[in-house]
Amino acid sequence: MSVTTATVDLKEIEEKVMSGERLTREEGTALYDVNDILFLGALARYVKEKKSGNYAYFNVNRHINLTNVCINRCKFCAFSADKDEPHAYTMEREEILARALEAPNIGATELHIVSGLHPDKPFDYYLEAISSCKEALPDIHIQAFTAVEIDYFARITGMTIRQVLEKLKEAGLGSMPGGGAEIFSGRVRGLTCEKKASGKRWLEIMRTAHELGLKSNATMLYGHVETKEERIDHLIKLRDLQDETGGFQSFIPLPFHPDNTDMTGIKRTTAIDDIKTMAISRLMLDNFDHVKAFWIMLGLKVAQLSLDFGSDDLDGTVVEEKITHMAGATTEESIEKEELIHLIKDAGRTPVERDTLYNIIKVYE
Ligand code: SF4
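# iron/sulfur cluster complex -> structure
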């Protein structure tokens, strides 16, 4: 096992992890230079097992992307469209409800709703999407709207973040996904998504959501123009906010998919980068209970492997994912529950079906 890099003593890092001591920015950055991924895996697995034993979670959910029309047109986004483009679409109430009503047929406990920022749709359009789904399916958990969408609703209505979130909560919003975080660095946002809410704003929205009792996830889109220092800075900002609020349920590292985006010249991340990022995230985010392997973006094989490198959750059955598939993801758009159970069991873990808030629905011993 290699125990040194140019800048840090890995033995010292190992001892810190074993004694539950927090890793510094310098240590986190140096871990990216470690080529011994089994060393990283062993440490990340130790932390994962301390937090969730042998369990690996999944849920049964249905995604609904209300519209792909978006004013931001981020460079890394293959999903969005201008409203006059042929592939632009916007669902109206009946279509949204029809999709939502499929959820109970597949045993879904969650509707996962994220969308573009449509220039002509008022806040009420988004609000009614939530309230009509909740009315039709009162027992379903609705996880919806990234901080970027919340920022947009505040801007088009003149309401505060708190007011927007309170309205959505009243309408049936149960929790928030973690998208839109990308990389918090202003440099990276300037190059990739200059119109998007800033990193500071994203964190402020999450702070407010957590204060209102809304749990959320957090993501990091990596593998484009960011440096490893900017990745670690992103993780530390999340860790700091989690210290304050405790409102993040899970962290989800998302590898960038360049196809059909304005950044097609960039190479896809390698399996090694994906696995390292999973392990380093697990090690840096000592106050997050869960680190999720989103198989849609990682691919099923790397996602399964990552269960040995710090992740403890394979997300869900998903059903009809559009955002990553427009960017060339070759994974399925959905997966059967039995397949998730098989992947988890084959990795030597115990599959646990959970609801959105990590209440256990069933343990598959
Ligand atoms: S990433 Fe989100 S905000 Fe950016 S263009 Fe795509 S849908 Fe719009």
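# post-check
DSSP finds 14 helices and eleven strands in the chain.
The domain at 35-363 is CATH 3.20.20.70 (TIM Barrel).
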